[in-house]
Here is the input.
Amino acid sequence: MYIKDKGHTVINSVREKRTYLKMTQDGLAEKVQATRQTIIAIEKGNYVPSVLLALRIASILECKVEELFRYEKI
Amino acid sequence: MYIKDKGHTVINSVREKRTYLKMTQDGLAEKVQATRQTIIAIEKGNYVPSVLLALRIASILECKVEELFRYEKI
DNA sequence: TCCTAATGTTAAGTTAACATAACATTAGGT
DNA sequence: ACCTAATGTTATGTTAACTTAACATTAGGA
Here is the structure.
């Protein structure tokens, strides 16, 4: 992140939701109009997506953005 | 946006929620740990924030991310 | 065991999302 | 009209969020 806020991170449950829906990374990527690498990176926590992508993912994974991405203290 | 998807945009109601709560751009910026310019840019639709910022803004403006940022067709 | 689907890794490039800063404009109160 | 707070504008720079692409690894079924 650009904003340096030590002591906080964004944890997501994309992988959990995705596998629960028996969806593949590739399938999800296609549905949210992103690449597989992007999904992998997000699942691995390599980066946090934009709200645009987050809204799409949440939509496809049938849940709210806040239950998919949690802003937590370390 | 990086993702080219003609026919769609992200519309937000940050300004409405903010003014409703009688909060200033500067005040909001400070609370979400961003700059005033960032708030202005978001309100003007110049760019969509990251989920991190979106989560913070939604939290401060006391609403859900999806009611603050709507993915709409043009 | 072999084949394939799914997942992971790395690199290199582009654009968007931030920041800082300095200055201009508007709106409202006295 | 004046002052100040709030808002808007423009420019420049850095980093994160993406992309494409090529290859490596893992897991599971026939």
In short: Residues 8-73 of chain B form a domain with the 434 Repressor (Amino-terminal Domain) fold (CATH 1.10.260.40). The mean pLDDT of chain B is 90. The longest helix of chain B spans residues 51-60.
